[in-house]
Amino acid sequence: MFPFKIFVFISVLTLTTVNGLINCPVCSDPFDPNSCTGVQHCSNANHDICELHIHLAESNRLSYSCQTSNQCINRESHPCSINTNEMCTYCCTGPHACEVERRNLFSTIFTTRHPTNAPNVHSTQPHTTVSKCIVCDTEPCDVSGLPYLSPIQCSHTHPYCVSKYEQDAHGHKVQKGCATEEFCRTYWWDLTSQNTQCMSTSFPNLPSLDCTFCCHGDGCNKPNRPAHNTLVQF
Fold it and tell me: From CA 191, how far away is CA 180, in angstroms rounded?
């Protein structure tokens, strides 16, 4: 089954790793740092750290994702000002370490804010219709079979199409399916849309590359990088 479609968040703290793979927090309320008690199991062996984004332009909205140490530490190293930046990035090594870091950040730098007009990350806006998406029968996709797949109807809880492209020293693999808005906000909007390597005309030949694209429209995720006019804008 496709992971984006069946992703289940467990609302308890577990061990930092499962089968050598890191676990990272999930926030049930993206505006409440005390709600980040869920756990996401990182499925990519290259992901060895949790990356926290605090979106200053969105009332200090929090989002966690699985990342590689080099990428996260590089983003964390850039100075972040609560007066001038739109987003600050921090790295931690698992649920407990992330909780300690989060508690420290929100007791010394940031404040908890619950604006009445906060964006609803569980809604299906900005689109109200549900896409028909390419969904692979295997994980990763059987690339040779992709041209013969037809779009299937996604559910109202997973209204967006996703195309995930991963590249390493051994080659590349893709995953395609349906995704929630919360998933797309984190992995597409917060991470990939700001990554110039993912957004370049062609994927660069790098030893490590991880890009996730969310689009809207029937069959929009058939290309590894969906057409620009179909990409979701939040």
Answer: 16
Tell how strand 160-168 and strand 152-153 pair up. unpaired
pTM of the predicted model, to two decimals? Answer: 0.55
Rounded distance between C-alpha atoms, residue 105 and residue 95, angstroms: 15
Token pair 């694209």: residue: 213
Do you find a cis peptide bond into 140, omega within 30 degrees of 0?
A: yes
Residue 134: CB partners within 8 Å, gap ≥ 6? 146, 149, 150, 151, 161, 163, 176, 177, 219, 221, 222
Place of tokens 């921090």: 90
Residue 32: burial class (beta carbons within 10 Å; 0-12, 13-18, 19+): middle
Cβ count within 10 A of residue 176 = 26
**Per-residue confidence in pLDDT tens, the chain, 234 aa:** 344 443 333 233 334 555 568 899 888 888 889 989 888 888 778 889 999 988 887 788 888 888 889 889 988 888 888 877 778 899 999 999 999 999 999 999 998 876 544 444 333 344 458 899 999 877 788 888 888 899 999 888 889 999 999 988 888 899 999 988 888 988 899 889 988 889 987 888 888 889 999 999 999 999 999 999 999 998
Cα–Cα distance, 133 to 176 (Å, whole number): 8
Here the tokens at position 3 are: 């992971």
The answer to whether 168 and 34 are in contact (CB under 8 A) is: no
